Amino acid sequence: MGIxxxxxxxxxxPSLCEEVNIEKTGLIIDGAALYYFLYYYSNxxxxxxxxxxxxxxxxxxxxxxxxxxxCEVTPYVFLxxxxxxxxxxxxxxxxxxxxxxxxxxxKTELGCxxxxxxxxxxxxxLVRDVFIEILKEKDIxxxxxxxxADPEIxxxxxxxxxxxxxxxxxxxxYDVHKGFLHLKHFEWKRKKDxxxxxxxxxxxxxxxxxxxxxxxxxxxxxxxxxxxxxxxKEIFANESSSPGQNDIKRLYGMLxxxxxxxxxxxxxxxxxxxxxxxxxxxxxxxEDRSFKLSIQKYVEPTKTDxxxxxxxxxxxxxxxxxxxxxxIVDQKTMILPALVEDFSQPSSYTxxxxxxxxxxxxxxxxxxxxxxxxxxxxxxxxxxxSILLSSDEQKQLELERLHEVLMLINKLxxxxxxxxxxxxxxxxxxxxxxxCVTVFWFKRLQHHPKPETVHCLHxxxxxxxxxxxxxxxxxxxxxxxxxxxxxxxxxxxxxRVAHAFSQWLCCMxxxxxxxxxxxxxxxxxxxMLYCGPLLHRLADEDTIEEVQKTLRxxxxxxxxxxxxxxxxxxxxxxxxxxxxxxxxxxxxxSDEDSKTNPDNPHIVEKTLLxxxxxxxxxxxxxxxxxxxxxxxxxAGDIKAYLKLLFQNEHRYGKIVIHVGSNDxxxxxxxxxxISIASVCNFAKKMSxxxxxxxxxxxxxxxxxxxxxxxxNHWLSAWCSENSVKFLDNWxxxxxxxxxxxxxGIHPTLDGAALLSRRLDEFIQNLDKKAELxxxxxxxxxx
Length: 782
What we know:
This protein is of the alpha/beta class. It has four domains: 18-204, 3-Layer(aba) Sandwich (Rossmann fold), CATH 3.40.50.1010; 212-298, no CATH class; 310-566, no CATH class; 577-772, Rossmann fold (3-Layer(aba) Sandwich), CATH 3.40.50.1110. The strands form three sheets. It has a seven-stranded mixed sheet with strand order 1-7-6-5-2-3-4, sandwiched between helices. Helix 19 (451-466) packs antiparallel against helix 24 (553-566). The radius of gyration is 30 Å and the shape is elongated. InterPro entries: Asteroid (IPR026832), PIN-like_dom_sf (IPR029060). It comes from Astatotilapia calliptera.
């Protein structure tokens, strides 16, 4: 974090730094500082509003390390690990500041005149992952630390007799023998004759200039503090005769005060203790234990230890596993960094919620985890339940031996992302995970379909093609995409498009980290596939049509195949997003039988039938009925769809929910029960009458048949206990197996007609009973 305004103070005194040329040497690099600096300052065109420009960032990083190589400079990179056990107030305060920056970036139009130094910056979500990917690709030596990297950077610098390259002014306090190089003055783009111009800071020159005992530098750092803890904020500044801002005058005042202390006869430890006591007494404050701890950080920097299994620690250090696992295991906490998104909508992180639940389940053994994320305009913490497999399988998935059970690993990954990895054989390795993520993400977006949803999907797939090398010529495609990328900077920012892509990035990052934890059931992807400005420029129907026409050969075949598996228009799995939007709008706007309740203008007296693809051919004669068929939906998906309808003030006279087929595929009976209770509780916010239509018998697989039968028995009993109406379909379809198609899931056309008649009769009976007395839905629990 560094000391506030110390960098400015040093810049005011040229003699504190020596002009040097860097060549033929080792260099210890603060990795986090480097990727922040390269993304924010080395190229002003790198995007922050559209999710990031990772190809552009990769070019910048590669050019940096190529320059070091040309100058015979050997880099050693260290990256920070877990964030430590900060108090809740500090976490919320820090995230709140990041959120305000993200909102400012979202509102700031390109080309506006904002002073570079004070322009707010928000790091796109995949920058660190791309940076590590590049280090591996270029075979650059690096280590990902378990905690703060500063102690290991300091130790490595002195052990190898190398300077430190960073932006962190903490390295002005450490006694780094070969000095500190600030990235701001490390002019790698101006290399000449195999040398890089730079400015070298040494602690000895600083102490000599201010006549300060070097032993007191940690005391100066401690009382100067950072933006969270500072001593005597006004007193030292008022006593200083130096010109400039108050914060800089305060530092001058502290240095003058410490330099005048008479402590010659003491050893270094006693000097520091007495100097701190004198400073605290001087400003009439009570000594805070945090000042002593801060001093110790500089005097005896120590590495962070962890009780994580050895194989996990090794993967973290090699950059093969995210450091998020440290905070989750040690503190049961997940910090979700601020994103540039549409702040009128729920946080983009909700799109990857269930993937994180699997992630937490593996790391905590089923314990709750606390997430910090935005809720509207505020940062809030939320307790999140983990998702586990069956109890027998969970014993085999303990973190200690997770890397040994490959079959279960594949099963868990497929369950979390709702994919079959065996179906990915025709997809290039580097696209397998991004394609799985895209299918998962698009299915989630279909809960509230909009035309731009499909445009975003096509833009992503075209982006995959742009960065996919294949035999054959696609000159027109490459040329068109490059022209669009060059013109993308002039594209007006679209909040809804930005939000959809932000959701994809959240799904991508969490899937990448789950894949790492599961020892890569799918090959590591190329995160640089995503170029935000280009994709935003592509997310337009006319542009997509133009670009599609330029595809040729293998790229065209692959693109069409990816469209088919991501967006199955012709599989009979229900309408597309655009068709579903049109259908819903037509039904809701032209329904003459619907009438508004005069007591509440938002409640519309109609029936909503919602469920999975079992409803795809269902047609009801009951007037004023809207059918929402969501292929692949589980109970949680239906609740998510209802939430979106609720936000748009949709209300219904009755809500009929058909659920269970997809939930029963997974070994999570207790989770399914909780999810069904939850969707029922939410549905009754939108209707006074909520009912369930039970699952159909599944005859293709004995295990799933047993689960679905068990679910049907439980649902029937649970509805009865909780005053919820239930339509039992089991026996009717069990006696007529020809009414279910060969996949064992969906009804035939005759089966759909029978289900339609049963639903019509059931709904009409509800109307008759309602005339005698209203149906009461009590609070339900599983």
